[in-house]
Every structure is written in C-alpha cells, then in structure tokens.
Write a structure and sequence with these properties.
This protein has helices at residues 10-16, 28-38, 42-47; strands at residues 2-8, 20-25, 51-54, 57-58, 74-78. The chain is of the alpha+beta class. The chain is globular and about 25 Å long. This is MoaD/ThiS family protein.
C-alpha cells in the first residue's frame, strides 16, 4: 500500500470540508473508495464530475483501477471549472 495526499479543489474542497487528507491505497480506485467512505453525500456526487491528476499527470479516460499510486504521491481532485 502506498501512502500519500489527496488534494481537493473548488466544489470538491467544499464538499469534503477540507483542502487535503491522506490516502493509503494501491490504485486511484481504492483511494476514491476510501474518500467515499469518509465523505458520503455531496462529495460522492461531485466525484462523478471530476478529473484527476496523479503526481501532476492527467488520468484521462484510464480506468481508475489501473492507475497505480506511488508512495508519497499526490492525487488532485479537480471538478469542472466555469469559464475558459
């Protein structure tokens, strides 16, 4: 298991009630399962619209279960932003 940090932005930050928190997971899917357990409700709905960066690299359309997380890594949770 890798340990790192999840950072929330904009609507995700508001729904989580925090700017960041630790994760312990091997994949993005496992990390997000932990997020849903800790923050049921609005954040779970916001996550459906989010994109993700892993250590600065976009996840894109890859399956979250295939995205490995590194020790000391960072997951950025980015909801859609208004504007251009």
């Amino acid at each position: 298991m890798a340990a790192g940090t999840i950072r929330y932005w904009a609507a995700a930050k508001a729904a989580a009630g925090t700017a960041e928190e630790p994760y312990t997971a091997e994949t993005l899917a496992e990390a997000l399962d932990g997020v849903r357990e800790r923050h049921p409700g609005e954040l779970t709905r916001v996550l459906l619209r989010c994109s993700f960066l892993i250590d600065g690299n976009p996840v894109g359309t890859r399956g979250h279960e295939t995205v490995r997380l590194a020790e000391g890594g960072t997951v950025e949770v980015l909801p859609p932003f208004a504007g251009g």
